[in-house]
């Protein structure tokens, strides 16, 4: 019995001695709302902004352990992806309520800079695409960039295709009647979906982003 007690005590001491660090980031919901409301139209319904924090000294995103929207009356949890990004809904009520976005990270806050990524919503990610479906996604990005370019034309690049990203950054795969996947990425120019083609992928992509003339 004495041995058992010692083992339990040793385990307890070991658990207590493990340091757990978490720093809090608090941001105004208004700042996110100004972004997400730009995607409220039908011509950009397939797109979303994914937010995260780029680590300033390492090639990765800061690790997020929790995320939620907080008002005086409620707390709304936000899902965190495996890549440490999160999305936020566009709700005028939250904007009027002066809501706060509260996040916790295991990294030092001073090492984390805001990162915003424009990407296709998860429901538009699949293994097979027709030319019409790819054209639809492309036109969504083109509409967004054209709208932003109407008053920032000297800063906005031109969309000339799509980039399909896969979970394995080292994935290389040949695709019939299409460019090959190289280093986990498939780049399609806008002329690809001019014909009646079906794109068959080895797996569902992680995300789809715009290919621009600066890519």
Q: Layout of helices and strands, plus pairs?
A:
Layout: H1 2-17, E1 23-28, H2 29-36, E2 47-55, E3 64-70, E4 75-77, H3 92-96, E5 100-105, E6 112-120, E7 128-130, H4 131-152, E8 159-165, E9 185-189, E10 198-200, E11 207-212
Antiparallel strand pairs: 1-5, 2-6, 3-4, 3-5, 7-10, 8-9, 8-11
Pfam families: DUF2987
Organism: Alteromonas arenosi
InterPro entries: DUF2987
Total number of helices? 4
Instruction: Give the C-alpha Rg.
Output: 22 Å
Structural class assignment = alpha+beta
Order of secondary-structure elements: HEHEEEHEEEHEEEE
The percent of residues in helical segments reads: 10-25%
Average predicted confidence as pLDDT: 87
Count of the separate structural domains: 2
Gap from first CA to last CA: 67 Å
Strand content: 25-35%
Shape: globular
Given as residue ranges, the uncertain stretches (5+ residues, pLDDT < 50) are: 1-20
Strand arrangement within the widest β-sheet reads: 1-5-3-4
> What's the main sheet like?
4 strands, antiparallel
Total number of strands? 11
Protein name: DUF2987 domain-containing protein
InterPro entries: DUF2987 (IPR021370)
Overview of this protein structure:
This protein is an alpha+beta fold. It contains four helices and eleven strands; from the N terminus they run H-E-H-E-E-E-H-E-E-E-H-E-E-E-E. It has helices spanning 2-17, 29-36, 92-96, 131-152, and strands spanning 23-28, 47-55, 64-70, 75-77, 100-105, 112-120, 128-130, 159-165, 185-189, 198-200, 207-212. The strands form four sheets. Strands 1-5-3-4 form a four-stranded antiparallel β-sheet. Strand 3 (64-70) and strand 4 (75-77) form a beta hairpin. It is globular. Residues 1-20 have low confidence and may be disordered.
